[in-house]
Amino acid sequence: MTQPITNKNTLHINKSLSVQISLTGLSFLVTTSDNKEVLYFLEEKFESSTPPEELLTTIETIINSNEELQHSFNQVTLLYATNLYALVPYSLFDETKASEYLKFNSKILANDFISHDRLKNQDIVIVYVPYININNYFFEKYGSFQYYHATSILIPTILKAEKFIKEPKVYISVQSESFDCIIVKDGGLKLCNTFSYRTAEDFIYYLLFCMEQLKLNPERTEVVLMGNIEKESDVFEILYTYVRNVSFASENFSDLSFSEKMNKHQHFVLKNSL
């Protein structure tokens, strides 16, 4: 667990809680209710992918052992950063057939709860599997809350920034064992997919495959990185070997700063969910 960041006494301040949930880690962010100031941040990284049924125990342990997470909050938001999702055009979406959209590219169980987020400005529906035991726990602990898939934050945030850009651009949101690849062109979404990887070679293989499918030139196409990646990593080194125009997402997306030691491109989803 990383050292928690606490900026001030938060007892008498109206606060919001955002929690990002993945099989490789958890992040807890407490801000003022106007979302202008970070009051508390805590990140737990797992050594390996954790089974979904064990996540709740870890969440309970973290919340019960951190006083800053035991207060009441004006707003609570859960963000599921998982690969159990599919994008469907709104014009083709049928809520009664939600599981049908997932079964071809995800392993789902008969008793899985299927949810969806509608991105109204993009005419897209994101169908996904939230963890219902975690949802139930947060309802019992905090009362009403909101939950979304992480791509429901990534896609609108990126498309808003690229609204007037004609040239294609690749955005990569990196986690420890997976990454989201989002490709935009002419202000619209061309591709969104999540890939699991174990090595840097896996990473570059999937990225170059996506670029090849859309006929993008790795020598010219800009690739923007966010999340759990740094210049010193093996992934960045191999990426820069094959892709020449590489940069990190800047503070232009969000002016929230968790700490001076944390780079601006980290925790992109959490920052832009507020």
The H-and-E topology, N to C, reads as EEEEHEEHEEHEHEEEHEHEH
Based on CA atoms alone, the radius of gyration comes out at: 19 Å
**Helix share, percent:** 10-25%
Quaternary organization = single chain
The structure class reads alpha/beta
Largest sheet strand order: 1-4-3-2-5-9
Q: What is the CA–CA distance across the termini? A: 23 Å
Q: Which band does the percent of strand residues land in? A: 25-35%
Broad shape = globular
Q: Average pLDDT across residues?
A: 89
Number of strands: 14
Total helical elements: 7
Low-confidence stretches: none
- Sheet of most strands: 6 strands, mixed
Give your account of this protein's structure:
It contains seven helices and 14 strands. With 274 residues, it is an alpha/beta fold. β11 (178-185) and β12 (188-196) form a beta hairpin. α5 packs parallel to α6. The two termini are 23 Å apart.
SSE diagram, text form:
Elements: E1 5-6, E2 15-22, E3 25-32, E4 38-45, H1 52-64, E5 75-80, E6 85-89, H2 98-102, E7 115-119, E8 124-128, H3 132-142, E9 146-149, H4 151-161, E10 169-174, E11 178-185, E12 188-196, H5 200-213, E13 222-227, H6 234-242, E14 246-248, H7 268-272
Parallel strand pairs: 2-5, 5-9, 10-13, 13-14
Antiparallel strand pairs: 1-4, 2-3, 3-4, 6-8, 7-8, 10-11, 11-12
Helix pairs in contact: 5-6
